[in-house]
Amino acid sequence: MKMELISQQLSALAVDLLAIAAVDDQTSKDKDAKPLPVLLTTDAAVQSAAAAVLASGEFKAGANETLLLHSPAGLAAKRLLIVGLGKRAKATPHAVRAAAGVAVRFCKPRTLRNLAFALPEGLDATTSARAAAEGALLADFDPDTYRSDRKDQGLHACTLVAAAHHLAAAQPGFEEGIIFAEAQNFARLQVNEPPNVLTPTVLGQRAAQMAQAAGLKWDVYSSEKLHELQMGAFWSVAKGSEEPPALIVLTYEPQGYDPATYSGPVLGLVGKGITFDTGGISIKPADGMEKMKYDMAGAAAMLGAMHAIARLKPRVKVICVVCSAENMPDGKAYKPGDIAISMPNGENPGKSIEIINTDAEGRLVLADGLTYARQLGCTHLIDAATLTGACVVALGMVNAGAFCNDDPTFRQFEAAMETTGEKFWRLPLGEEYFDLIRSDIADIKNTGGRWGGAVTAAEFLKVFVADTPWIHLDIAGMAWIEDSRPSIAKGPSGVAVRTIAEWVRTFNV
Ligand code: BES
Ligand code: MN
Ligand code: ZN
Fold first, then answer.
1. How far is the CA of 7 from the centre of ligand 3 (A)?
2. What is the tens place of the pLDDT at every residue in 295-330?
3. Fold for the domain defined by 181-505
4. CA–CA distance, 177 with 5 (Å, rounded to integer)
5. Ligand nearest to the CA of 495
6. Which ligand has its closest atom nearest to the C-alpha of 446?
7. Cα(357) to centroid of ligand 3, in Å?
8. Where, residue-wise, is CATH 3.40.630.10 in the chain?
């Protein structure tokens, strides 16, 4: 889909569909008063084409509500689609992102090829252009890659139309929106792949390919490097599969970077890349197991974020560490009762870990990934992982879980969340939770029992970050969308890509 930003009279746009945003502008306190839909355009021809239907009260401009007019009088467009943003107070860039998505997903099943989306007047031009570009590109993604009856529903062009005096302000937002959405779609593409296609080795190849194209430094290692680094926790998971693991390291260096003089932060992005999670010897029930191909969504989120960072070029160094393996039951697989020794860190020996449940594998690969990121010089860490079912129980499929050992770092993350509109809910850490993962035989054990499972998993990771400012994102409930929504397809969501990249930008010095 070709994306364009132009300024042109709306009535002159000869497209298959022209989409216009509307708000419910009811200001009256009278609850029984009819909502007053108002189009966010000053274009007289569009206003007059829509006047009768708006006056009818049939359209209330609720969020994502649509109204279609064919052959609208006085317009060159074949169709006019009015998309509601909801109440005027809620007409934020986040509502614009959704509305642009709704317009794209309206076109696709109808095989309408050319869409023009009028950037709503009265909102900030830069942020709404970014949001609209993001929404349109994210909506263009569908997960039906492997269907032989796949219909070509692709839009050829999506044109964002700005008012003439807003074009200059809209341009940088438009360009950023494309960068963020393409990065997110890159992540979704990887998560969508079946586990026989996307093995750890293939994930490594794709990461290398992306890094090469984006101008990032990269290294992809396998079993030998795990042994060399003594990554005993990562290896215990990896050794149960015929597929070799991949340790993927991508590095972004800001312009003019000189290791001798650079004194800024070094951000470490660590991702869980389990390309299939059977549970191992503590095997999962068959029902729904096919979904466990998305257990590499944390890794995909980090690779997507690196894709965006390479193009946004913030003035901060970033290192991405992805730990990828398949969690399989096998004659060589690790077992409950085993002891794994994690990667040593400088003078400090590795931690001994009692394996209670081989299905708690994510924290094991991340333990060594976090240690390695610190060894590579990271001053701040963020990890993303489809880590626990307990997090899904706690927060459902509305918010991802977030944990942080440093309030200022979390405030930066919250600022990023506000920009991207992604939802993360901070959950607690604490000594009492750590007590649940103490082992009788080793330093720690890999599960903490039935209660507070998302927190005990986070406490496990915290052992390996020590005092480094760190954010842990548990995206188990958010990485896969169960049902299609008006603005986004079901399937891999690409959650966290935009917020992580935006968080990195808050370090821009
Ligand atoms: N990959 C799963 C977590 C998961 C669950 C992701 C549902 C997506 C949807 C993880 O490796 C896992 O199996 N966690 C266990 C931990 C338990 C054994 C302590 C879980 O949550 O049940
Ligand atoms: Mn598991
Ligand atoms: Zn897992």
1. 48
2. 999 999 999 999 999 999 999 999 999 999 999 999
3. Aminopeptidase (3.40.630)
4. 12
5. 1
6. 1
7. 11
8. 181-505
Name residues whose C-beta falls within 8 Å of residue 416's C-beta, 6 or more positions apart in sequence. 499, 500, 502, 503, 505, 506
Q: What is the 3-state secondary structure (H, E, C) of 59-100?
A: CCCCCCCEEEEECCCCCCCCEEEEEEEEEHHHCCHHHHHHHH
Average pLDDT across each block of 10 residues of the chain; the chain has 509 residues. List them in order: 98 98 84 84 97 93 97 98 96 98 97 97 97 98 93 93 97 98 98 98 98 98 98 98 99 97 98 99 98 99 99 98 98 98 96 98 99 98 99 98 98 98 98 98 97 98 98 98 97 98 93
Residues of the chain with CATH 3.40.220.10: 2-163
Cα 69 to ligand 2 centroid, rounded to whole Å? 50
Q: How far is the CA of 278 from the centre of ligand 2 (A)?
A: 7
Q: How far apart are CA 194 and CA 38, in angstroms?
A: 45
For residue 403, which amino acid is it? Answer: F
d(CA 24, CA 26): 6
**Tokens linked to 11:** 């009535």
Helix 297-312 vs helix 200-214: crossing angle, to nearest 10: 10
Q: Which ligand is nearest to the CA of 397?
A: 1
Q: In terms of Cα–Cα distance, which of 64, 144, 71 is closest to 104?
A: 64
3-state secondary structure of 395: helix
User: What residue type is assigned to position 37 of the chain?
Assistant: P
Strand bridging mode 470-474 / 480-481:
unpaired
Going from the C-alpha of 332 to that of each of 327, 328, 343, the distances in angstroms are 12, 9, 20
What secondary structure letter does DSSP report for 166? G
Query: 2-163, what's its fold?
Result: Leucine Aminopeptidase, subunit E; domain 1 (3.40.220)
Which residues line ion ligand 2, judged by CB < 5 Å? 277, 359, 361
Which token pair is 72?
């609208």
**∠ CA 139-143-147, rounded to 5°:** 135
Helix H or strand E encompassing 187: helix 167-192
pTM over 0.90: yes
| Nearest-CA residue for atom 16 of ligand 1 | 360
Query: Which residues have CB under 6 Å of ligand 1?
Result: 277, 295, 357, 359-362, 386-390, 392, 447, 453, 476
Q: Among 334, 388, 456, 473, which residue has the most ligand 1 atoms within 8 Å of its CB, making it the best to mutate?
A: 388
Active site residues: 284, 363
Asked whether 85 and 22 are in contact (CB, 8 A), the reply is yes
- For residues 152 and 113, the answer to whether their CB atoms sit within 8 Å is no
Q: What residue's CA is closest to ligand 1, atom 7?
A: 389
Buried b (16+ CB within 10 A) or exposed e, 260-288: eeeeebbbbbbbbbbbbbbbbbbebeeee
Q: Decide: 244 and 264 in contact? Cβ < 8 Å.
A: no
